[in-house]
Amino acid sequence: MMVEEDNRETVLRYVAAFNEGDMEALQQVFSPDAQVYGVLGWGSIKEAIPIWQELWAAFGLQLLIESMVAEGEVVAVRYTERGHSVGSFRGGPVTGKSYEIVAMEWFQMHHGKIHRRWGARDYAAQMRQMGLPLS
């Protein structure tokens, strides 16, 4: 049970840092060789950080944990993700409109750090709710 609690705690730190847009704190919860998989592709944590900065600056997004399950080295989380168009995303317009979608993330942990992270969200619904084109 201790491993699961430690892993849950790491994921909670990830969510808190993500919600604050604190990229330095985000990097600290990932292993140096971590891989991040998501809607916009995949890569190392160093490749993901600029994408997350861009998303955070454009949408001011917030993750609200609805449920979390931890078993061994795996943690799965379902969120309500909310945000609004406050900055340009990849050259698109700023609409000021908000969105709310369901998002899910699956984490593979290693020695108390996030080693792999897969994210799934309804990107099309997110863009549609904010009146933005799919890019």
Write a structural description.
With 135 residues, the chain is an alpha+beta fold. 35% of the residues lie in helices and 41% in strands. It has helices spanning 2-20, 23-28, 45-59, 123-129, and strands spanning 30-38, 41-44, 62-71, 74-84, 98-110, 113-121. Strands 2-1-6-5-4-3 form a six-stranded mixed β-sheet. The chain starts with a helix and ends in a 6-residue tail after the last helix.
Summarize the topology.
Blueprint: H1 2-20, H2 23-28, E1 30-38, E2 41-44, H3 45-59, E3 62-71, E4 74-84, E5 98-110, E6 113-121, H4 123-129
Parallel strand pairs: 1-6
Antiparallel strand pairs: 1-2, 3-4, 4-5, 5-6
> What structural class is derived from the secondary structure elements?
alpha+beta
Strand order of the largest sheet: 2-1-6-5-4-3
Topology, number of strands: 6
Distance between the termini: 43 Å
Which strand-content bin applies to the residues? 35-45%
Please work out how many helical segments DSSP would assign: 4
- Give the CA-based shape: globular
Overall pLDDT, averaged? 94
As residue ranges, the low-confidence spans are: none
Question: How would you spell out the order of helices and strands?
Answer: HHEEHEEEEH
> Which sheet architecture does the biggest sheet show?
6 strands, mixed
> Helicity range of the residues?
25-40%
- Please state the CA-atom Rg, rounded to the nearest Å: 15 Å
